[in-house]
Design goal:
Layout lengths: L1 H21 L5
């Protein structure tokens, strides 16, 4: 199903976005 792939990509994008935000960047 196309909806499943779209949902999976959306969840992956959210997870990667949260991970990038939660990891502090060294000065």
């Amino acid at each position: 199903m196309k909806l499943l792939s779209v949902l999976a990509s959306l969840i992956a994008a959210i997870l990667t976005g949260n991970a990038a935000e939660s990891t502090p960047t060294p000065p």
